[in-house]
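To the structural biology subgroup,

Please find below the input and predicted structure for Dehydrogenase (Flavoprotein), which we are adding to the shared reference set this quarter. The sequence is reproduced verbatim from the submission form. If anyone notices a discrepancy with their own records, reply to this email rather than editing the shared folder directly, so we keep one authoritative version.
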Amino acid sequence: MTDLGLADVAVVGGGIAGAAACVALHRAGLRSLWIAPASASGGDRVGESLAPAARPILAELGLDGLTERPGHRPANAAFSAWGTDRLVERNAIVHLEGPGRVLDRAGFEADLRAAADGSTGRCREQLAAVSCADGRWRLELAGGRSTTVRFLVDASGRASVVGRTLATSRRDDRLVAACAFLPHRDPKVEPTPATLIEAVEDGWWYAALLPDRRLSLAYFSDPDLLPRGLSRDLPAWQTSIAGSTYVSHWLADAGFDADRPPRLHSAGTTWLEPAAGTRDGAGWAAIGDAAAAFDPLSSHGMTTALWAAARIGKVAAAWLGGDPEPLSAYAHAVAAGISRFRAQRAEVYGREQRFPDAPFWRRRKPDGVTALPRR
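Predicted structure (tokenized):
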């Protein structure tokens, strides 16, 4: 078995969290190995809203210019019908950090990967096995190569391929996102550069105009409340859209075409307890969705991933230097953030009182979260 060579830290996962972690580790003076196989899914990625709080984090990583490149747009206006039949506007002028960004997600990730590739050695093979002994992690890859490191970062997303073997996995719900990217068919109409959130009886809708004039559209509900076979049934998807008020009007007025059924993605709130620690004298930490994947209502998934990645360089450097305190502090900070989010989510869902008997909303009362049936 071929050895991959010397590295202080291994980062598992090729998404935003993994790429940013490699940049942070390089800035901390550490050698890292990035195990980042190419995505099998390809195509558009769900999630394009970057919160204003991400701006100082990107600056800390030396990446503050990434969101200013062509292809991204300011996220100035957001409208919501939540807890009321009226549409309420919120403007970015209230944010001291300035507006957030609606990203060309593929372009942003490509730029972030390029920055990471300049900071680390990258391996595109799948991780096959992980073991730990005598203060070192041994990682074996599908192609037959291997390496050993003293610190391991799990940035593998919701799969949390390493963290799930080291900590307890928790789940609050089984929220599912039905997602589609709708083309704009009417050249005579200039679509509104806005974001729209609309609560309905069995869930809630999210729509955002992308920089390329397509509409990112998602419907969030529970598996047993979605039409059976929705991902293969265009008429059922179109009927679901027609059941909304403001979303369906936006699509019709601006000339967006729901021309194919949606793809389904897990969107529930999951997390690890703890999100970092030690095993047989070796250190590890989970970041991004591998540590905590939040209900998209927060719109902070990418920002949280960047925050954790920015911390991990100093955490790993301290651990390797014999100081375990920053690793413990990171685990406590993640746990505190999860507690805050769960309390805030309960409060936000609690604002919607129009559907008191609907299963989706009953389940999201403080005493109503239950394990939902699988399909």
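Summary notes: The CA atoms of residues 63 and 92 lie 22 Å apart. The longest strand covers residues 127-133.

Regards,
Lab coordination
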